[in-house]
Amino acid sequence: MIAVSRRGDLVCIALLRGDILAEYWLWNLAAPDGVGDIYTARVDAVMPALAGCFLSLGDVSGFLPDSAGGKSLSIGTYVAVRVTRAAQGDKGPRLEVVNEPHGDTPGLLRRGPGPLLELAARRPEDEIVLDDYALMAELRPALEGRMRHDAKAFDAVLEDEVAGLAESTAALPHGAMMHISPAKAATLIDIDAAAASGMSPLALNTAIIPEICRQISLRNLSGGILIDFAGLKAAQRQKLAEPLRAALAADALRPSLLGFSHLGFAEINRRRIRPPLHELSPQ
Question: What is the enclosing helix (H) or strand (E) of 268?
């Protein structure tokens, strides 16, 4: 089931598998993240050293990699592009060329579907329960027959779990905790096993991997992610590789485990498409 709750311009979207919260997204109707938007764009600078070019979209500039259609373009060329990754930090959106009609003035042609319609397309069998009739009316052309109104689409249990996603810590099985420290270059996850007892470090770390990966997905942590597992000897770390890869495989973005660093961190790369939860408006 997909549960949807509107709070002013902010739409909260939860994918539930039974009673388990599997995905969570925020959709700001007043300030969409831009993923999927189609623009008329003008090439302003060709950057061979970066293997791409910078394009004007009107009020903002985006980067078009050579591999996404930028290789044969020259300064002043107009082209239709789609936003494939939202702007992040001081970097503009990432773009790809699309075969669509375009004008001769940079600007937005049409908005992308947004996270709710994208999730609905990925989960075509799931019912969508919403608490807002006006939003249902807006979505009816795309989701006719799949929507049901419920004033309590988010029950008290779901509300509590969603509120916890704003915290920098999360409880793990067996009394362990994870501490999340986002930075520009990467996100560090430190595992604290202080309250856990009765298990070996290897057994504990193996047992908590699925919940660590679920929290990464729920918070949409992206880019480089470093996990400092608790109390493991160097020789034991590789024994976590297969359980970690298996848990990451359940993520719709298919993150990659790159290995373990010399400092003992598990290194994960998770594609950044939409902004992580901690960069978005509070709920």
Answer: strand 266-270
Q: What is the pLDDT of residues 219-258, one digit of tens each?
A: 999 999 999 998 888 889 999 999 999 999 999 999 999 9
**121-172 pLDDT per residue, tens:** 999 999 999 999 999 999 999 999 999 999 999 999 999 999 999 999 999 9
- Return the bridge partners of 162, or none: none
The residues pairing with 91 across neighbouring beta strands, listed in sequence order, are 88
CATH of the domain at 63: 2.40.50.140
Domain co-membership, 143 together with 252:
no
Residue 6: domain span: 2-31+114-157
Note whether residue 163 is domain-resident: no
CATH of residue 118's domain is 3.30.420
AA identity, residue 218:
L
Which of helix, strand or coil describes residue 9? coil
pTM of this structure? 0.90
Residue 234: the pLDDT is 86
- Report the run of H or E that residue 244 belongs to, with start and end: helix 241-248
Number of domains in the chain: 3
